[in-house]
Structure formats: structure tokens, C-alpha cells
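QA checklist item 7 of 12: single-chain prediction sanity check.
[x] sequence parsed
[x] length recorded as 148
[x] structure emitted
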Amino acid sequence: MEPRTIAVKDLPREIKEIVLTDVSHYSVGLLRMYADGAQKISQYIGSGTLVSLGDNLAVLTAGHVIKNFDDKGRGWDLSDEKYADFVGMIIADYGHRFAIPRESLTFHGYYNLEQSPTGPDFGLIVLPHGGPELGQLRRRKLLPPRFD
């Protein structure tokens, strides 16, 4: 039997719900969080997928998203030059606050959209070992299997 292609819009609703639920276990929204005087600002800048690399837990995302956390320049869709004090993550479907200090994370990213508008465009945010943030993350998300 030859495989056939089905558009997402044509999938049965039950299948879409199962897939979205399964994917949501490993997906996070990413927020750039900083203070502007007394005001606390949170800007949604992208999403990522939880991955494990040996003993490390990380978020796989796009390189231009990583650029938005850079304290030396502007992100591609942000109009100011303030840098992120915290990286916030949307890890549940209800109101919550989950933030990790920027300086405790390791960022890796590559993109040059001016040279090649179609990519490559990838980034990785390596989360710190231990700490209360990982405990909270473990309570809300399924962590990916470990690959060595």
C-alpha cells in the first residue's frame, strides 16, 4: 500500500487532540523578561522543544530566538535594546510564573538570515543542573528520554 498525504485540516479532531497533547508535553513558550524601571516586562519571542543531551536538559529552538536574549543587540522583532534578565517559559495551560535567571543558562545559536533567508536557523538553551527550576519543570512537563 502506498502512503498518502493528508492535510492537517483534514485530520479527524480526535487525532489532532491526541497529537497536540503529546507534543505539548515537550513544548515550551519562551519569554524575554526584564525590568524597565518599576515595570516588569514579559515578551513572547518564540517556542522550543525540550531535549536531553546526556545529563543536560535543554530547549531546542531557532537561532533568531536565541538572538532575542542577546544583551548586545536587538532581536528581529523587538523595538528596544533592553536585554533579558530572565528567560521565562510557558510550561502549563494556566497562569503561572516560571523564570530562570539568564546568567545561569548557556546559549548556543546559529543563523544568518541575511546571507541565507531559508536557514540554517537553530539554537539551543542549556538549562542549569539542579536547582528549584528543574524540579518545577519536572512536575509540569514530561522530560525527554536521555540520549548518550
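[x] summary fact logged: The chain has three helices and seven strands.
[ ] second reviewer sign-off
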